[in-house]
Design brief:
- This is FAD-linked oxidase.
- Keywords: FAD, Flavoprotein, Oxidoreductase.
- Residues 33-201 form the FAD-binding PCMH-type domain.
- Belongs to the oxygen-dependent FAD-linked oxidoreductase family.
- The chain is α+β, with helices and mostly antiparallel strands and 456 residues long.
- It contains 13 helices and 17 strands.
- Strands 10, 11, 12, 13, 14, 15, 16 and 17 form an eight-stranded antiparallel beta sheet that branches. The chain has a five-stranded antiparallel beta sheet with strand order 5-6-9-7-8. Strands 1-2-4-3 form a four-stranded mixed beta sheet, with helices on one face.
- A hairpin with a 4-residue loop joins strand 5 and strand 6 (98-102).
- The longest helix has 14 residues, at 384-397.
Length: 456
């Protein structure tokens, strides 16, 4: 198959590096990753994806996939890159409480539609992430302690596998592939659509409280004690933020360290108010935006930036959070640290996130994880080594309390080596994933990711 044949077979654009529109087609959220594929295919439908995969296989080229570009992590040089932003089908069945979502749909679009009928999905903190890529990596969101990972509630996937076939995969039709896709991210094919269950959540008690940086120690030590007793209906995290003096940052938060408590409570608002009261007693906040809010406003809980940024990210999973661990965290990310981090977050896990789902999947490292650490630094490529080094220093300081494992959606460019990527899955699951990879992608066509190599 030639480029001419590929163009004839594809409805959307097929672009080479010298073609007009090539750079624009490759726009991404994380600006530290520059995509330079040999060919880019702007898929408008599943048939376009099939044609692109068949072309890649015929020319022995790897396949890369670009949605919003939050999770871009591996160089796409020499690949056939498929952009999914034109796959925007979104259907919600109000009576059945289910949704079918195509690969280009972002959470902001889904939330807007679902909230109109009083339903919710298990979205993450950022409204600009695509639903499909987020869910394939597990999907850790603000309702997770009550309902688990987003991947736990997927009922079907439409995927183009390495042989170019479009498959509708369910627990009944292909149980091994169904298990692997939900938690294995892009290792087993190009998922063009997913179907999943929804929840009757019209509103919740939640939001964020911003405390001045000098209260960081009090906030984090209280959070450590508080998390031990709150019900599963309560999900929360604390992010130490040092935001730049830019127009999109509210003036009171610019260029200063703040401690941002983020919570959602799926219960009686009066009880939510009681549970949050100990934090309000710590001192005067800069902003207190916790209260009853509609599901349509859920993105305001974390207030993630929506514009593209150059980001370096790192993470770890903790099995415990004693006072000594909080002190180490504060030493490197608190008010007395010369930290380059934009965000250093401790997120409470447990609850439904710690239990296996009704239909097992590949999302790993559940049972021993009580807290998730997520670090973000922003800067241009010359700063990459220093920024990542500082993040690693903080992660190393927390090693005595770490599980030694990782959460897949919080793994980025520095985590792409196979031995590091393997930490995203349990030791029991990883060999099974490699064997399923051998059956469905023996040539490792889908390797522009945190790769699971096939067994030999």
């Amino acid at each position: 198959m030639s480029i001419g044949d590929l163009r004839a077979a594809v409805t959307g654009p097929v672009l080479l590096p010298e073609d007009e529109g090539y750079v624009e087609e490759l726009r991404t959220y994380n600006l530290t990753v520059v995509h330079t594929p040999s060919v880019v295919v702007g898929a408008e439908n599943a048939a376009d994806v099939q044609a692109a995969v068949k072309f890649a296989a015929a020319h022995d080229l790897p396949v890369a996939v670009l949605g919003a570009g939050h999770g871009s992590s591996v160089s796409s040089a020499g690949s056939v890159l498929i952009t999914t932003r034109r796959l925007t089908g979104l259907a919600i069945d109000e009576g059945a409480r289910t949704a079918r979502v195509e690969a280009g749909v972002r959470w902001a679009d889904f939330i807007e539609q679902a909230s109109k009928v009083g339903l919710a999905g298990l979205n993450g903190s950022s409204p600009t992430v695509t639903v499909v890529s987020y869910t394939l990596g597990g999907g850790l969101g603000p309702f997770g302690r009550k309902h688990g990972y987003a991947a736990d509630h997927v009922t079907a996937l439409e995927v183009v596998t390495a042989d170019g076939q479009l498959r509708r995969v369910t627990a009944e039709s292909e149980p091994d592939l169904f298990w692997a896709l939900r938690g294995g991210k892009g290792n087993f094919g190009v998922v063009v659509a997913i179907e999943f269950d929804l929840f009757p959540i019209r509103s919740f008690y939640g939001g964020g409280i911003f405390f001045p940086g000098e209260l960081s120690g009090k906030v984090l030590h209280l959070f450590r004690e508080w998390a031990a007793d709150v019900p599963e209906e309560m999900s929360g995290s604390v992010g130490l933020l040092h935001l730049p003096p830019l127009p999109f940052v509210p003036e009171p938060l610019r260029d200063r360290l703040v401690a941002h408590l983020r919570i959602t409570y799926l219960g009686d608002p009066a009880e939510g108010e009681r549970l949050v009261a100990p934090f309000r007693a710590l001192g005067e906040p800069i902003i207190d935006a916790v209260g009853e809010m509609p599901y349509s406003a859920v993105a305001a809980v974390h207030n993630d930036p929506v514009d593209p940024l150059p980001l370096f990210e790192h993470g770890a999973l903790l099995s415990e959070l004693p006072a000594e661990a909080v002190d180490e965290f504060l030493r490197l990310a608190g008010p007395d640290a010369a930290s380059p981090l934009v965000l250093a977050e401790i997120r409470h896990m447990g609850g439904a996130l710690a239990r296996p789902p009704a239909v097992p999947n590949a999302v790993g490292n559940r049972d021993a994880t009580l807290f998730n650490i997520f670090l973000v630094a922003a800067g241009g490529p010359p700063d990459a080594e220093a920024l990542h080094g500082y993040e690693q220093t903080l992660i190393d300081a927390l090693a005595p309390w770490s599980t030694g494992r990782r959460y897949l959606n919080f793994m980025f460019a520095g985590d792409a080596e196979p031995q590091t990527a393997a930490l995203a899955w349990s030791e029991e699951a990883y060999p099974r994933l490699r064997e399923i990879k051998r059956r469905y992608d023996p040539a490792n066509l889908f390797r522009i990711n945190h790769n699971i190599p096939p067994t030999n």
